[in-house]
Amino acid sequence: MSHSPTLKPTLRVDRQRQGVAAWVVNVPPNLSSTGKHRQLFFPSKAEATTVCEQLKARKDSFGTSLTTLTPARIAEAAEAYNLLEGRNISLLTAVRRCLGIEDQRSASIPFRELCALYIESK
User: Fold this and answer.
1) DSSP bridge partners of 39
2) 29, 55 contact by CB (below 8 A)
3) Which of 7, 21, 48, 99 has the fewest Cβ atoms nearer than 10 Å?
4) What is the band of 6 on the pLDDT scale with cuts at 50, 70, 90?
5) pTM above 0.85?
6) What values do phi and psi take at 30, rounded to 5?
7) What are phi and psi of 38, to 5 degrees?
8) How many CB atoms lie within 10 A of CB 115?
9) How confident is the model over 84-116, as pLDDT tens digits?
10) Are 9 and 48 a contacting pair, CB within 8 Å?
């Protein structure tokens, strides 16, 4: 059974009978974090409606947010996408991993400093 993407919560009676989250929001690929159609399930209509409103706001502000990117940043993003071509990783995932590595590096201190601090503490 195919569900067309809408930004309105729908009650799935079959799920309701099973006692699981029965309210579904069909997210179109252009609004999905994965770039693919997704179905998000919620236990209440209110929660599903809130997510729908957030998705509508994202959809409405999408064109506006692009105007804040400079041509240089757009070109840089295009080059980053080219580097990721053929790999099963998104640009956002790659950036988050790189930032995690950088955070670990900046949080550490050189071994010599660590030894000096250890000796001073004795």
Assistant:
1) 26
2) no
3) 99
4) low
5) no
6) -70, -15
7) -135, 155
8) 10
9) 999 999 999 999 999 999 998 888 888 999 999
10) yes
